[in-house]
Design a protein that fits this description.
Blueprint (H helix, E strand, L loop, with lengths): L1 H32 L3 H4 L14 H9 L2 H33 L5 H11 L8 H11 L5 H25 L3 H9 L4 H9 L4 H16 L3 H6 L8 H9 L7 H32 L5
Helix pairs in contact: 1-13, 3-13, 4-7, 4-10, 4-12, 7-10, 8-9, 10-13
């Protein structure tokens, strides 16, 4: 029996080690936020604050008003991108699942191949196109660029949910005289709510963490999002205020933590439901 238990014990130890490894940066961010800036530079570093202080948070809320401008911009761009992505993914996902033509495989291949290339590989052409359209350094230009990057994956994800809805439901509604729009919005869409939530959460979180699009397409300080604003405003060339930076990081992670806390079960349920047919 002892020999049979050893693999389970070893597996548990490895899992705990991986968990501690992944959580340690979050722990370090939290304790550094409550250290003084001098203590943050101590060597060897301390694993807990010797004298916990709130100077970083007080400084953030009293002297760094530009932080809240970045914060509000991040909320605006993330919410708008998630909303637009969900709307487009509903139409595109339903079309992929229901309308089968000779171009279907080609369209699917294009969507899949678009995920093979890194974002940085298309930033030059994207910047050129947006510059000609006159939407560089605008919020809606940034939103359109982020939505365009998220659409392929979100469409494919949501299409799997529509494929799991039996066609007989739609055929019965057709017999009763329902139109295509009525079937889609009043009958089918409520049945794929977990999938829509999964797409919306994914789009919101990916936009919240976006750096490359915002750094490339936005030049005005009042339009910058949180990640770019932190980099350009609070990270100096010679020295960093690590206490303030980690306070900002703590405040910046709160929305993501809340989203995972309240919507995690819906997101997991949606992703799992879309992965199994029948």
């Amino acid at each position: 029996m002892n020999k049979k238990k050893w693999p389970k014990v070893l597996r548990a130890v490895i899992m705990i080690g991986i968990l501690l490894f992944l959580l340690f940066p979050i722990y370090w961010m939290l304790i550094t936020a409550f250290k003084t800036n001098m203590e943050a530079y101590l060597y060897p570093p301390s694993l807990y604050p010797q004298h916990a202080v709130l100077d970083g948070f007080i400084n953030l809320f009293t002297e760094n008003n530009e932080f809240f401008v970045y914060y509000i911009n991040n909320f605006y761009v993330s919410f708008a991108s998630a909303l637009i992505t969900c709307v487009i993914a509903i139409f595109a996902g339903y079309s992929i699942a229901r309308f089968h033509t000779k171009w279907n495989k080609v369209f699917m291949a294009i969507l899949l191949s678009s995920q093979m290339f890194p974002i940085v590989s298309r930033m030059i052409s994207l910047y050129s196109l947006m510059s000609k359209a006159g939407i560089i350094n605008t919020r809606y230009g940034l939103i359109l660029a982020i939505v365009a990057a998220q659409i392929p994956f979100c469409c494919l994800l949501l299409s799997s949910f529509f494929m799991n809805i039996p066609r007989e439901i739609e055929e019965a509604a057709y017999v009763d005289g329902a139109s295509r729009n009525t079937i889609l919005f009043k009958l089918i869409t409520p049945l794929v709510t977990p999938g829509i939530l999964a797409v919306g959460i994914y789009a919101f979180l990916m936009t919240w963490d976006d750096y490359l699009h915002a750094a490339t397409l936005i030049q005005s300080d009042e339009l910058r999002t949180l990640s770019v604003g932190i980099t350009l405003r609070y990270l100096g060339e010679l020295s960093y205020d690590w206490s303030l930076i980690n306070c900002i990081s703590v405040i910046g992670t709160i929305p993501m933590v809340l989203v995972f806390f309240f919507f995690q079960k819906y997101m997991v349920k949606g992703l799992v439901a879309g992965a199994v047919k029948g």
